[in-house]
């Protein structure tokens, strides 16, 4: 029987390693040090064969491993992990996220009844301030987002896939990630579909996680290809156009 949201161990964490167990190890140590009372289980997916940097290590929560016979995409891996989730909350977490204190219990405690997806503020390397809220991705937005005077939304239209705390009921209702996205774009898509289903995105402005960012799309032709093709999939999807229309309607109603 699922635990109520107020139960201590209420989160199943999904982490996928693409040859990154050296990054996963300090993350597991921080989850154990700061949040072992909130984490019921970590589902650790080994997406490609690698040396086991976690051999012989134990933590104060269950760790369930999945070793893929062939590499899978971002969304497919986390959807697979969700099949092993029996808690009220499901956390999609990048291997390179870092914590200085417990933010999971406070994040769950802040959740409003209609919040289907939550995140703390994210601090990128070399930055003094957290990442600003993100607007809907359009070709025009990509061109102007770095120009002076660009207006960020007061409430984000979407959040990146490196830290996504889903209410399990919301994730289940929308069917999880769209597996047609192999890598990139699936985070915007699932945020749009979550909101179209009537759930809200919630950012905990007082909670902070650090991201040791690895921006492969800037250095790898393959990742750049995935990035561009994913954007084209976003812009050709029904969810994008429905969400864009809903945003325009909401913005018009407050003018």
List the helices and strands and how they pair.
Blueprint (H helix, E strand, L loop, with lengths): L10 E7 L3 H15 L3 E8 L15 E6 L6 H9 L6 E5 L3 E2 L5 H7 L4 E9 L15 H6 L18 E5 H7 L11 H11 L3 E12 L9 H15 L2 H16 L2
Parallel strand pairs: 1-2, 1-4, 2-3, 6-8
Antiparallel strand pairs: 4-7, 5-8, 6-7
Helix pairs in contact: 6-8
What key phrases describe this protein's structure?
about 260 residues, alpha/beta, 8-stranded mixed sheet, 8 helices, 8 strands
Describe the protein:
- The structure is a single chain.
- The chain is α/β, with parallel strands linked by helices and 255 residues long.
- It is built from eight helices and eight strands.
- Strands 3-2-1-4-7-6-8-5 form an eight-stranded mixed sheet, with helices on both faces.
Q: Distance between termini?
A: 46 Å
Kindly state the percentage of residues in helix.
25-40%
Report the oligomer: single chain
Order of helices and strands: EHEEHEEHEHEHHEHH
In a nutshell, what does this entry contain?
Helix content is 34%, strand content 21%.
């Amino acid at each position: 029987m699922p635990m109520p949201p107020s139960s201590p161990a209420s989160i199943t964490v999904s982490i996928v390693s693409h040859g990154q167990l050296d990054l996963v190890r300090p993350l597991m140590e921080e989850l154990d040090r700061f949040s072992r009372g909130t984490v019921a289980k970590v589902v650790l997916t080994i997406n490609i064969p690698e040396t086991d940097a976690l051999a012989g290590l134990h933590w104060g929560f269950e760790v369930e491993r999945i070793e893929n016979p062939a590499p899978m995409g971002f969304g497919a891996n986390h959807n697979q992990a969700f099949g092993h989730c029996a808690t009220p909350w499901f956390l999609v977490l990048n291997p390179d996220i870092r914590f200085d204190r417990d933010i999971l219990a406070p994040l769950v405690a802040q959740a409003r009844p209609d919040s289907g997806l939550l995140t703390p503020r994210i601090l990128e390397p070399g930055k003094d301030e957290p990442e600003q809220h993100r607007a809907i991705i359009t070709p025009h937005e990509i061109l102007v987002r770095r120009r002076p005077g660009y207006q960020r939304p007061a409430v984000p239209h979407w959040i990146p896939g490196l830290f996504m705390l889903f209410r399990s009921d919301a994730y289940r209702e929308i069917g999880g990630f769209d597996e047609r996205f192999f890598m990139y774009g699936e985070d915007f898509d699932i945020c749009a579909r979550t909101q179209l289903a009537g759930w809200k995105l919630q950012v905990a402005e007082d909670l902070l996680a650090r991201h040791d960012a690895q921006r492969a799309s800037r250095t790898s032709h393959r990742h750049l290809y995935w990035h561009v093709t994913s954007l084209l999939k976003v812009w050709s999807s029904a969810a994008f156009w429905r969400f864009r229309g809903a945003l325009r309607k909401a913005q018009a109603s407050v003018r």
